[in-house]
Amino acid sequence: MQTQCPTGTYNPNVTGTSLDACSACGVGYYCEAGSEAETGCARGTFGNETGLNECLTCEAGSFQGKEGQAACEACPVGGYCEDVGAVQARPTPCPPGTWSNKTGLKSADECDPCPAGGGARHLTLTLTLALTLTLTLTLTLTLTLTLALTLALALAL
Q1: How many domains is the chain partitioned into structurally?
Q2: Does residue 54 lie within any of the structural domains?
Q3: Which of the residue ranges 47-51, 122-126, 151-155 would you say has the lowest mean pLDDT?
């Protein structure tokens, strides 16, 4: 008779007859009671130790976009991440008049006031120019691909 493994462990050998046949789930995985295999932690969660029966949720200020991970990643520089269990970094920019060069911010309250002398205006202008350049490059690539496809179709006819 097969012995059911307790939570946090699994037994891939369906004919195992003792608890000695059970193995602890690895880091980045969890196991419910009676598991025959480890289950990878879902996106937005992590497993930082062996033998878990459930994964832990990423806190505000972090995210995890991959399955089966041992830790969450910090929210990137320039904004804050309020969502709990986030699966991708979508930082909310610091409010006008504030900024941050730190990772892992959880709320706007953690953004620092801009120094005197228009630092926020310069940062906003820099970000606007970077976004404009990105959109211009995207538009250029789109037009190039459209032209290439049109030429290919014309040659095929």
Answers
A1: 1
A2: no
A3: 122-126
Is residue 1 situated within a structural domain?
A: no
Which residue range is the domain that position 142 belongs to?
A: 116-157
Residues linked to residue 79 through DSSP beta bridges, in sequence order: 93
Predicted model pTM: 0.67
Residue closest to 82 by CA, chosen among 102, 66, 61: 61
8 A C-beta contact, residue 88 and residue 63: yes
- The pLDDT tens digits for 45-81 are 999 999 999 999 999 999 999 999 999 999 999 899 9
The residues near 11 (Cβ < 8 Å, ≥ 6 apart) are 2, 3, 5, 21, 22, 23, 35, 36
Give Cβ neighbours of residue 17 (< 8 Å, ≥ 6 apart): 1, 2, 3
Q: Are 52 and 45 in contact (CB under 8 A)?
A: no
In this structure, is residue 148 part of a structural domain?
yes
Residue 67 CB contacts under 8 Å (≥ 6 apart), including other chains: 40, 41, 42, 43
Is a pLDDT exceeding 60 seen at residue 127? no
Residue 21 located in a structural domain: no
